[in-house]
From TrEMBL, chain A:
Pfam family, one: NAD_binding_1
Name of this protein: Ferredoxin reductase
UniProt cross-references to Gene3D superfamilies, sorted A to Z: Nucleotide-binding domain of ferredoxin-NADP reductase (FNR) module, Translation factors
Keywords assigned: 2Fe-2S, Iron, Iron-sulfur, Metal-binding
Domain FAD-binding FR-type: 10-112
Cofactor(s) demanded: FAD
Species for this entry: Paractinoplanes bogorensis
Statement: the UniProt record of this protein carries the keyword Iron: yes
TrEMBL record, chain C:
Pfam families found in the cross-reference section: Oxidored_molyb
Location of the Oxidoreductase molybdopterin-binding domain: 35-179
Region feature Disordered, mapped onto this chain: 1-21
Protein name per Swiss-Prot or TrEMBL: Sulfite oxidase-like oxidoreductase
PANTHER family: OXIDOREDUCTASE MOLYBDOPTERIN-BINDING DOMAIN-CONTAINING PROTEIN, PROTEIN-METHIONINE-SULFOXIDE REDUCTASE
Domain of life according to the entry: Bacteria
Amino acid sequence: MARTAVSGRLTWRAATLAEARWESPTARTLVLDVPDWPGHLPGQHIDVRLTAEDGYRAQRSYSIASAWQPGGKVELTIQRLDDGEVSPYLTDVIEVGEQLELRGPVGGWFVWRPQQTAPVLLVAGGSGLVPLMAMVRARAVAGTRQPFRLIYSVRTPEDLLYGDELRRRVREDQGLDVHHVYTRKTPDGWPSPAKRIDVAALNTYGWPPDFGPDCYVCGPTTFVETAADILVALGHDPRRIRTERFGGTS
Amino acid sequence: MTSTPLDGSSTAGGGLPLDGNAMAGDLREIFAVDVTAARYVCAGCTHTDAVGTLMVWPHSPGLVARCPHCSDVVIRVVRAPGRVFLDLRGSVRLEVPLEGG
Amino acid sequence: MGIISRGFGGRRRESVPGLPPGQYLTHDFPVLSAGPTPRIPLDRWRFTVTTETGEKTSWDWKEFQALPAEDVTVDIHCVTKWSKLGTTWRGVSIETLLENVDTVAEYSMVHSFGGYTTNVPLEDLLDGKAWIAYQFDGEDLHPEHGGPARLLIPHLYFWKSAKWVNGLQLMPEDEPGFWEAAGYHMYGDPWREQRYQGD
């Protein structure tokens, strides 16, 4: 799988929207049927290209949300940005059965491979959860036992992605822990007030640096820089911290 | 989710950088291997790390990747219809891992 | 491959007559940056003209502000295909800056804080065709649009209108700047659609 995912030059191919579901009031998962998809690693992304009727084109990158299984489909979770150019089309306009062009999978650096034996710390800001969710899912598919901890920073409980699935996985996937940080509004009865991700959260709910965890941080640029700086300050090896920033531009 | 205009077609703002991962698609259209996992050596300061760690300004109007250590330009990618210009003068070398090597 | 996404309009744009080929009209002012936005305190701002013999003439912010300024209304055309009509600027013409500069150079390299460069033939900077602008739309030029001051050379693609300018180097021969060395056209005339090398 990994081999086919990284060999040969890439070109654009057609994908068909097979299914779609809402993950939150503003985020929709697109399940794409891509003939001859070579497979992908969790953390990889694809480029989507849209062409308007007058020939105008726009291109965006989206992380893949699903773990690959032979014969499976490719899932993207798109967060709608209201003044965006592409995301409102993908969340609200494109219908099941319609096609778009994509190129991928791409990216071999911000990936987790099941062969990695170290414990894993995932730090997600908002829809930065998407590629990290692919890692959580790939771990389950591979049936491996590396302990995973996910710290997921989100604005409000309504913005949570994959809420039911994460609750189920914490019960069923042995060795997976999830901690939420709410930055604007907490659920009723939450033990602490809304706050941004901080030293205490990463220290308490992450791994001690001595365990040599592989850390993956994904989210908006400022979130990623804050979290990565804290991890380094806590003593984590910068070479084991992998980051993916997204601009949230549209 | 990343949301990165890679073709300069977007009219969205360009203040904060992305990282080298954002170049993966454009580079995979040129190279037979993934270059974001390759190690670069910065021509400005000799810092070395994965291409995925570079700071990338994707809408500028080409794509500019700078060293996070000294902010010198390491890679420039300009896409034209039917061709791509790749300027690597800011990189002393690229060390590319090969699968099964 | 020709997959058309019905219902995908893209960002609001108009293809209107009178624009250079391949351009769309925009009403925003998109920001394109090749690096971090430099924040230049006015007391450290300086603009220096260097001739082909190495002779330098420079102005600090106060001296620059004392030069005769002009208000201009121009159309601008970005190589990423947007055009914006009737933009209003205030600045000092390059003609004014070069008034007492002795040169036979035919080319120039525009330099910016942050290291950006772009090349322009000297005659394209003269005769009221280019300015160092420090106001846009009646306001001080915002750093993300090139403030304190940027080159304004509206008859060429807008990457030539370098942001955060700090110098003009006069040269006997043409040399490529930051984008020209990486594949963009040496001259960049939007009416001849000179986007990339060889266009």
